[in-house]
């Protein structure tokens, strides 16, 4: 059977439209951070919100206001945790992964690559997609917290001014490289 009765279809239609409108309102209220590129933290919140919205729309056993309360709690918790991350680096480090340095001055950092489960082929692909034909063209490749790769081109700034300064395992003094490290590429 396709449906029980027209009242069930009407309930789903109304609950979905109202919950969708409320979700849009709550997301606008909570700010752009809620919809930013997703880290694991953001992904969990997004999946939970989708699940609650589906439950509100389709479950007859979940009262509408209880579902809306769940949406408000999820978005409020995401907002609160994001706000706490701004105020405390310790909380930020607990909740959000740090960017990881994968390639520095022509050298693949094998230990970091293993721990992040990234291959040389993944890094080379990221470089080619950004128009680089050689690892010599870039100072560093970073795996960002959202899973994307970024390349820093010819970094010549002091470490205190470097865009790499918050990248996990970036220590300029530990990564001195000679011209031999480029020979295989």
UniProtKB/TrEMBL annotation:
Residues 17-81 form the YetF-like N-terminal transmembrane domain. Its main location: membrane. Signal peptide: none annotated. Keywords: Cell membrane, Membrane, Transmembrane, Transmembrane helix. Pfam families: DUF421 (PF04239), YetF_N (PF20730). InterPro entries: DUF421, UPF0702_alpha/beta_dom_sf, YetF_N. Gene3D superfamilies: bsu07140 like domains. Residues 87-156 form the YetF C-terminal domain. The chain crosses the membrane at residues 6-27, 39-58, 64-81. Belongs to the UPF0702 family. PANTHER family: UPF0702 TRANSMEMBRANE PROTEIN YCAP. This is DUF421 domain-containing protein. It comes from Nitrosococcus oceani (strain ATCC 19707 / BCRC 17464 / JCM 30415 / NCIMB 11848 / C-107).
